[in-house]
Amino acid sequence: MTTEAATRRMPGAPCWVSLLAHSLPVTQEFYGALFGWEFRPGPQHFGPYSRAFLDGREVAGVGELAPDRHLPVSWTTYLASDDADVTAEQIRSCGGTVGVGPLDADDDTGRMAIASDPQGAIFGVWQGRSMMGTAFTGEPGTAVWNELVTPDTAAVGPFYEHVFGFEAEPLSADDSAGFDYLTLHLKDHPVAGIHGVGSALPRDRGSHWMTYFAVSDTDAAMRRVTELGGHVLDGARDSAHGRLSTVSDSEGAVFTLIQQR
C-alpha cells in the first residue's frame, strides 16, 4: 500500500469512489477501455454492482440503477469513518441529511451511508471492515483527488470541519486573486478540496463532489473519451498540479482527468 493510499484511510479522508449507472455492461466497457479496469462482482444490496480493479487492486465501484429510477448518473465520493452511525448523527446535527443507511454491505466488507451536505452535495460514508477502500492511488487509472464544487466555501466549510475533523486552509492572499478555495487537511496531509465557484456552478448539477482520475496523457485520454461515446466538457488546461480536462462518460457521469506533474 502506498503512503498516499494509507493517508486516504484516515477518518474523514476520501477512501472510495463509486458510480451508479443505467447500464452496468455499457459503463464497464467504457471505463475498461479508458482506464484498463477489470471488474468483479461486489455487494448487491442496491442491485447489480461490480468492483473495478487495476493490476489486481481495487480502485472503484460501479453499480446499476433500477430501471424505474431515471436519475442522472454521477460519481460519489466516500469519506472514511471509524463509526458510520456516529458520523450519520454528526451529519444530521450539523445541518446535513442522511438519505440512505447506515447499513451493512451484504458481504460484510463494511458499513455505509449516503448523505448530503447543507448545500445539497451528495457524498458517501464508509466504515471499512474487510475492505477499507481504494487499494492504491497515484497511478494512471486511479482516483487521485476529490473536490467539492459549491457556490461558496464559507457556507459548507464549517460543516465538513465539524463532522469530519478537517483543518481547512484557504489559499494565501498572493495565490487566491479572488479564487475561493479551501484545502482540507488531516494530520497535516492535504486530502480534499472545496472550490467555491459562485454563479458558475452548473444549474443542472448543483453542489457536487468531483473525482479526479490520473492519466498518463490528458490530451490522448480526452480523444479516447470521445471515441468511447463520452464528451469533453472543458478542454485541456494546465494548472499547478498538472494538465486537466473535465469530461463525461457515455451516460453523462462527469469526472476530471489529470496528467500529474
From TrEMBL:
> InterPro entries from the xrefs?
Anthracycline_SecMetBiosynth, Glyas_Bleomycin-R_OHBP_Dase, Glyoxalase_6, VOC_core
Q: Please list the residue ranges annotated as the VOC domain.
A: 13-128, 142-260
Q: Which Gene3D superfamilies does this one have? A: 2,3-Dihydroxybiphenyl 1,2-Dioxygenase, domain 1
Read off the SUPFAM superfamilies from this record: Glyoxalase/Bleomycin resistance protein/Dihydroxybiphenyl dioxygenase
**Record's protein name:** VOC domain-containing protein
Specify the species. Streptomyces glebosus
